Please model this.
Amino acid sequence: MILLKNISLIHQNHFDIEKGHLLIDSTKAGAYRFIELEEIPTYTEVLDCEGMIAMKAFANGHHHTYSTLARGMPLPKQAPKNFLEILEKIWWKIDKGLTAEMNEISAYYTAISSVKNGVASVIDHHSSPSSIAGSLEKMQTAFNNTGIEGLMCYEISDRNGQKISQQSLKETRNFLEKNMGLVGLHASFTLENNTLKEASKIAKEFNTGIHIHLAEDIADQADCEYLYQKRIVERLEEYGFLELQKSIFAHGLHLSDKEKEMLKKSPAWIVQNPESNLNNQVGYFNGQGLGDNIMLGTDGMHSNMIRSAQTAYFTGINFEPINMFQVYHRLRNSNKYIEKTYPNTKNALLVMEYDNPTPIIPENFLSHFFFGFENSQIKHLIHQGRFVMRDRKISQIDEESVLLESQKLAQQLWKRL
Ligand SMILES: [Zn+2]
Model:
């Protein structure tokens, strides 16, 4: 049991602030309630949290653990001219170079950095064509060993030939036989009909959804119209992907009104990744007409959901009519999604040390969130009734050895490219 003494708890929907002594019950998957000091059970760890705030931990709707070792790598001699070249010259080289060890260390790093950012659950989309078998389970274990949840999938694609796409389908099936996860697909323009058919079979058999990049760049739509004389959402609908409640479509930047309407009617989810879109210069997300099922993700750039939400707000007010409340709702939709698979993440809490220059009240909480909150203010993360991070130090994992190993493997990878 953990007692957070004198903490201010901010309710995630209406932002009511309740101050008192919060008991976190490790025997009830981390469920929490306010108690009086006389009621403290024996064997309770008491932490004085005067001046601190607690709120529900974040969830990341779209991440790429496999991008970890790419940070800072030497750029290609000729800079990519467009999105397709960014994929060909950078990402499709990196993923081919990844070994089982590199996958694992990338997952440990991503789990640690997620925790530091107050994130207790990550929806990951993985690719390592030279090291497919067993990759998902190893990576999920890294997330769990760090103390958080990962919802994994392997990015199936025909871009490296049929042998690799068959191996990816097999990895997906093997993983889903023992674990919860999704059927990962790269994007319409690297997937053939037969592969989509197989993916659909697996998703339905295991009662899950797909996780795919959708119209991230206009080239994805152009390819679909040229080869199949239809829009991507229409193509994907034919395989039943839109009917699956767990399906996730990342990006969705270049959609017609009709496609938006189809997505709005479906129970599936869209993930907005604002910083990645700005970085790749592929366009601006506009959620108008897409309905309510929009989450937020980071697309492998980092694990900072506060930053992702702030960028979504600052770009959103320029490119779609959106307000703070709507962006915050997208952020919390990532929690809503993951709680269906991992209900205990509902109780995951982050504790922040935020020096507010003005009072925080329910009516102005979002101003504090968008203009004042930073990841460095996050001090503790609690999940399943245990500290995953305490005083900014990860409890179960030696961070320093993960960083050293990751730096070593990054250099190995860069040499290979
Ligand atoms: Zn992505």
Observations:
- The mean pLDDT is 96.
- The CA atoms of residues 214 and 252 lie 5 Å apart.
